[in-house]
Amino acid sequence: MSATAATLVDWDDVLASYDPALGLEVHVELNTNTKMFCGCPAVFGGEPNTQTCPTCLGLPGAMPAVNRKAVESAIRIGLALNCEIAEWCRFARKNYFYPDMPKNFQTSQYDEPIAFEGYLDVDVDGETFRVEIERAHMEEDTGKSLHVGGATGRIHGADYSLVDYNRAGIPLIEIVTKPIRGAGEKAPAIARAYVSQLRDLIVALGVSEARMDQGNLRADVNLSLAPKGSDVLGTRTETKNVNSFRSVERAVRYEMQRHAAVLDGGGSILQETRHWHEDTGVTTSGREKSDADDYRYFPEPDLVPVAPSREWVDELRATLPENPLLKRARLQGDWGFTDLEMRDVIASGTVGLIEETVAAGASPQAARKWWLSELGRRANDAGVEITALGVSPAQVAAVQALVDAGTVNDKLARQVFDGLIAGEGTPEEIVAARGLAVVSDDGALGAAVDAAIAANPDVADKIREGKVAAAGALIGAVMKEMRGQADAGRVRELVLEKLT
Amino acid sequence: MSAPSSTTTGTDWTRRTAAELADALAAGEVTSVELTQAHLDRIAAVDGAVHAFLHVDAEGALAQAAASDERRAHGQLASPLDGVPIAVKDVLATQGLPTTCGSKILEGWVPPYDATVVVRLRAAGLPILGKTNMDEFAMGSSTEHSAYGPTHNPWDLDRIPGGSGGGSAAAVAAFEAPLAIGTDTGGSIRQPGAVTGTVGVKPTYGGVSRFGLVALANSLDQAGPVTRTVLDSALLHEIIGGHDPLDSTSVDQPLPALVDAARQGAAGDLTGLRVGVVTELGGDGYQPGVLARFQESLDLLVKAGAEIVEVSCPSFVHAMAAYYLILPAEASSNLAKFDAMRYGLRVLPEHIDNPSAEDVMRATRDAGFGDEVKRRIILGTYALSSGYYDAYYGQAQKVRTLISRDFEAAFEKADVLVSPTAPTTAFKLGEKLDDPIAMYLNDLATIPANLAGVPGISVPSGLAEEDGLPAGFQILAPALADDRLYRVGAALEAALAAQWGGPLLDQAPALEGASA
């Protein structure tokens, strides 16, 4: 399938003629130990079809039983989104055929979601915009098809298809917004900010890995245009599985420009699902989604209703983390970071790590420096999550304490991190084992300074003549000789003592 | 209980009840291997004519019997019925043993797991003789809708054994198995029990785990015992019943003392018991001989000290209509998984070069599902479709609520409710095959219990004068009060046996030498 750009209308012209209505559906894959309705492990990856049982394979006779932990996560998400929590709700069957769906119905929630009527305040260019949440409901994921033999990996042209059911039955929460209207030119930015802040919230709740690149968090973008000033909603398209914040923003903008082109040309928008192409930045037509879709929902007779007690809901409410938006503002104030510094910290996902490092005694600036420039770079180089480096906030604080005490300098501290990542022990042990401590002993330093003066008579003469700035070259030579372990301040003092 | 008649003495182990077999095993008169072999021999002799079984697992059953004998030798019995063989309806998943639900679409499918009921049977030491015939996916009242051919009623091989559990009932009635498991969605244990002269119990909904029971209609299905006596049913019920965390609809409460209730009832004293006769379950459409046997049974209950009260359940007249909307709706969804993708039959369509998944699915379903199944899929799909949901499925659920209220009101006036189990005795094979509505009417009296989730039992009440075929007496109790079924059922059974001079089945024709 080719993915070339359709004719688009200039952005300013779109805004002049149309009002967008935006709707976002975000699927969050929960990080429960087991699947939604059976005891199979709910972990990413694994050899195909090794994490399955009669229930998640939908074998005849097998029955679901609800995972209480998944219900708990759903309630916490609902509460964090300021939703009402249903006192009594049910699962329903959504009947449709799909080869990677074992039962040919999805166990989901229909008219009785666990959470409803909430909102999330998002920050768009310093302004707060309230996105209203219609519902958050529980459902199960499907399996995954793998098409073999074709050039594109898609079903068209494939010789055969294989299905992996490891993912089938992993718990999902689907969070659906109400139509966001009146956003105008800000629609793309609001879409991005919403998904981004929703992710922060999910991470803060600890209910999902929330990695968009691994599909833990998947956004569907619904968009329609109406003539400016009209109350009526236009026909919408649903762009599926957009998998980065930037793509969410681009997809909204693209669809607005594409819709406008179709409408300006006298055409009408087809209600359909569309695919987003990251590389070319366009959407292409997927399945036509007519009104004839009939999922024949009815209450799942194999599951008893979910009726969370008010006591339980209150208990869960008490465990909610601070709202990420408010928390961020508070931390920035506490830490004295500039807007730019704070934005970098947020983008790197190290807010929590810095917070813990500060709590362990380091200054906010030191914590930011180590996590962002040093450890962030290493994680990037290794292509792993920063937490996978195996360095804890307490260790970072301990390294900084050694710097503050003059035991090591920044350069040596980097070697201490090498040791920590290699698992060589505590920072103190690594300093001792690797012999990293700064030398400030006058005897050893004096000998090195004398040697440097002897080796650089021209430089020494300049200093004797009063050109103190030339001392840098001698200090550098001493540091080199001492493999960076000299106390640079003391070396400077000794050089000047001897030559002036 | 009455003394065994002459036919239950001697060395023919197949004529004994399960309780008697348990006693014989305990007394060392027989081994489990011997009596399992005796039943396998009986199956070999008569099943060609009866066709109660779809799969016989001689090897597996004998191995389980040997293991039981081994346990007994070490004094470690797994249950009171350890070593007594049993037959299982082919709708329950059995690990390593084919499970077809009487359908071509599952021909040859061998489940990799056991249904919870089967797990419990194995744990209790009951050798599994094989899987019994049934209407395809339990849709039917005659076992004529099995894709593998009908089962014949041991009382008259030209007649139906009831359905959908005709295989289980016929196996027990033909002395091929002392015990069987059936499933009852609208009467599929009780109605076959009535027309074959056996005892059939539908426990309280959720009283026996449904895990591994291939669903017909999940909100109605219930597995239960099929036996020759009330006591045997109680013994079996105590083994298969009780909470199962794998079935979230299963009741999380201990079972009442069922065996005790059966033994108490057999003593024959029902003083103070209020028996409610349901006005709506009798009269028009009921065969006179069936009604006569019902009346006699009532008289016996009165003799035992019971008080008869008339109760009316006005919503019962709508039960059939509600049932035939809810059942197909759930079934249409349950059967969607049979799509030729993963297991069972796969038919490649002719005249299509590059068939899509949908093409293969269409061809497979066309070849793999029988007419009755297709009929109900269409009905259910229609009843659930948007625009019709409220008019059909939604209304049916409201009727269901009304029926539950009728039961609640009736159980305030009576401890148990009674009626004939089925309106007629066994009809002839083929007689109602082309008239689905006439076929559906056979479950008139049994359906309300499934809609409300209350337990019921059918006890043989004698032979109808006009055709000499068995009729059944249905007893219904409030949810979770299954023990009342056993108390009243055992009392009636004892009184009737005293009249007949032995169990009703002693009057059944011998099948030796019969041919299909």
TrEMBL record, chain A:
It comes from the Bacteria. Keywords: ATP-binding, Ligase, Nucleotide-binding, Protein biosynthesis, Transferase. Its EC number is 6.3.5.-. InterPro entries: Asn/Gln-tRNA_amidoTrfase_suB/E, Asn/Gln-tRNA_Trfase_suB/E_cat, Asn/Gln_amidotransferase, Asn/Gln_tRNA_amidoTrase-B-like, GatB, GatB_Yqey_C_2, Gln-tRNA_amidoTrfase_suB_CS, Gln_synth/guanido_kin_cat_dom. It catalyses: L-aspartyl-tRNA(Asn) + L-glutamine + ATP + H2O = L-asparaginyl-tRNA(Asn) + L-glutamate + ADP + phosphate + 2 H(+); L-glutamyl-tRNA(Gln) + L-glutamine + ATP + H2O = L-glutaminyl-tRNA(Gln) + L-glutamate + ADP + phosphate + H(+). The keyword tRNA-binding does not apply. GO terms for biological process: glutaminyl-tRNAGln biosynthesis via transamidation; translation. Residues 352-499 form the Asn/Gln amidotransferase domain. It holds the Pfam family GatB_N. One of its GO terms (molecular function) is glutaminyl-tRNA synthase (glutamine-hydrolyzing) activity. HAMAP family: GatB (MF_00121). Allows the formation of correctly charged Asn-tRNA(Asn) or Gln-tRNA(Gln) through the transamidation of misacylated Asp-tRNA(Asn) or Glu-tRNA(Gln) in organisms which lack either or both of asparaginyl-tRNA or glutaminyl-tRNA synthetases. The reaction takes place in the presence of glutamine and ATP through an activated phospho-Asp-tRNA(Asn) or phospho-Glu-tRNA(Gln). Heterotrimer of A, B and C subunits. Belongs to the GatB/GatE family. GatB subfamily. This is Aspartyl/glutamyl-tRNA(Asn/Gln) amidotransferase subunit B. It comes from Nocardioides luti.
UniProtKB/TrEMBL annotation, chain B:
One of its GO terms (biological process) is translation. InterPro entries: Amidase, Amidase_CS, Amidase_dom, AS_sf, GatA. Its EC number is 6.3.5.7. It is an enzyme of class 6 (ligase). Residues 34-485 form the Amidase domain. It catalyses: L-glutamyl-tRNA(Gln) + L-glutamine + ATP + H2O = L-glutaminyl-tRNA(Gln) + L-glutamate + ADP + phosphate + H(+). The active site is at residues 89, 164, 188. It comes from the Bacteria. Coiled coil: none annotated. Keywords: ATP-binding, Ligase, Nucleotide-binding, Protein biosynthesis, Transferase. Signal peptide: none annotated. One of its GO terms (cellular component) is glutamyl-tRNA(Gln) amidotransferase complex. One of its GO terms (molecular function) is transferase activity. Belongs to the amidase family. GatA subfamily. Heterotrimer of A, B and C subunits. Allows the formation of correctly charged Gln-tRNA(Gln) through the transamidation of misacylated Glu-tRNA(Gln) in organisms which lack glutaminyl-tRNA synthetase. The reaction takes place in the presence of glutamine and ATP through an activated gamma-phospho-Glu-tRNA(Gln). This is Glutamyl-tRNA(Gln) amidotransferase subunit A. It comes from Nocardioides luti.
